[in-house]
């Protein structure tokens, strides 16, 4: 996969983007070649002011509406993912000050609209990011598939463009807007050309947790528990001391004699969950109100890679733990 970029201006802000992000943006764009799509962008600002685009947040099904010539994107899923990334970036870099986490803004495509430049709606959106949502700066990426014949309208030269060339070429145009431009009365973003770098040369970004990587699987866990009459409340906390927070599900059900805690790593189900039960205070079991359960009634692991949370619940009920 080849990546090329056009030259930028010496007065432009210095922007880096990792090859990993470009690969992810290209794959997401090609997944929807005939309708517009979008995703979130995160990264950091280095101590010298350099902006690094270092992460992609895939759209939650709750947050996006894709159409042939328009896309609506944003909502609780994006906000929660950004907060997760920000908190865990701080955990990873708590002993250094090389960079500050930043929500960069969004990438979207223009396949159906047929423009290779920002529409007026796009311009209004990126200005609003700074003016209304108080971002210090925003970078919007426009994705184009040149082989798509609907992309026929042009406006000026293709400055600020990075091409990802594989079986199908995808071009990305980078639009920049900041608070200084707003205060100067400028209400039009400018094109900037990022430098493409390997992710190993920039500060480490936290991984995106499994609930955003496997949204269907995450929702299935909650749905099955709800259908059984149980309630699961996910919370983010540090359980095992690693820099990356765990997602802990506090699961309750009327008439249970305890509360179930299922704690998952960011890469669940690759890493097995921690399964614990908070029992009602029992004077015959001092100090054991919270205990881990590893084996089922037959002495086999209570959880396997094929298990859902509801399967764990059934096994714990057989054990009379709940």
Overall description:
- With 322 residues, this protein is of the alpha+beta class.
- A hairpin with an 8-residue loop joins strand 13 (231-237) and strand 14 (246-252).
- The strands form three sheets. Strands 1, 2, 3, 4, 7, 8, 9, 10, 11 and 12 form a ten-stranded mixed beta sheet that branches.
- It is elongated.
- Helices cover 23% and strands 30% of the residues.
- It starts with a strand and ends with a helix.
- It has helices at residues 19-31, 76-92, 120-131, 179-183, 210-213, 215-227, 309-318; strands at 2-5, 15-18, 38-46, 51-57, 64-66, 71-73, 99-109, 137-144, 161-165, 170-178, 190-191, 195-197, 231-237, 246-252, 258-264, 274-279, 290-292.
- The chain contains seven helices and 17 strands.
- The protein folds into two domains: 2-201, Cytidine Deaminase, domain 2 (3-Layer(aba) Sandwich), CATH 3.40.140; 210-318.
Q: What's this, in brief?
A:
The chain is of the alpha+beta class. The chain contains seven helices and 17 strands.
Give the tags.
5-stranded antiparallel beta sheet, 7 helices, 2 domains, 322 residues, single chain, Cytidine Deaminase, domain 2, alpha+beta
């Amino acid at each position: 996969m080849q990546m090329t970029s056009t030259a930028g201006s010496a007065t432009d802000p210095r922007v880096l983007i990792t090859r990993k992000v470009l690969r992810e943006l290209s794959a997401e764009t090609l997944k929807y070649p005939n309708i517009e799509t979008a995703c979130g962008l995160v990264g950091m600002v280095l101590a010298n002011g350099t902006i690094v685009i270092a992460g992609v947040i895939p759209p939650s099904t709750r947050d996006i509406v894709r159409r042939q010539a328009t896309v609506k994107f944003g909502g609780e899923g994006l906000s929660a993912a950004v907060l997760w990334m920000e908190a865990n970036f701080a955990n990873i870099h708590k002993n250094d000050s090389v960079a500050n986490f930043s929500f960069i803004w969004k990438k979207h495509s223009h396949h159906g609209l047929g423009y290779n430049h920002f529409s007026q709606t796009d311009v209004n959106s990126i200005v609003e990011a700074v003016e209304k949502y108080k971002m210090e700066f925003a970078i919007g990426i426009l994705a184009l598939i040149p082989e798509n014949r609907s992309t026929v309208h042009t406006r000026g030269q293709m400055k600020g463009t990075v091409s990802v060339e594989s079986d199908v070429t995808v071009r990305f145009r980078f639009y920049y807007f900041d608070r200084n431009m707003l205060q100067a009365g400028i209400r039009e973003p400018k094109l900037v050309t990022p430098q493409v770098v390997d992710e190993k040369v920039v500060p480490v970004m936290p991984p995106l947790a499994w609930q955003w990587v496997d949204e269907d699987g995450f929702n299935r866990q909650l749905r099955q528990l709800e259908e059984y009459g149980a309630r699961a409340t996910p919370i983010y906390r540090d359980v095992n001391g690693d820099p990356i927070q765990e997602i802990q599900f506090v699961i309750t059900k009327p008439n249970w004699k305890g509360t179930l805690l299922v704690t998952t790593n960011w890469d669940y189900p690759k890493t097995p969950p921690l399964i614990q039960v908070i029992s009602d205070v029992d004077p015959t079991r001092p100090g054991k109100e919270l205990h881990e359960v590893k084996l089922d009634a037959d002495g086999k692991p209570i959880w396997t890679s094929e298990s859902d949370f509801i399967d764990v619940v059934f096994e714990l009920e057989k054990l009379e733990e709940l």
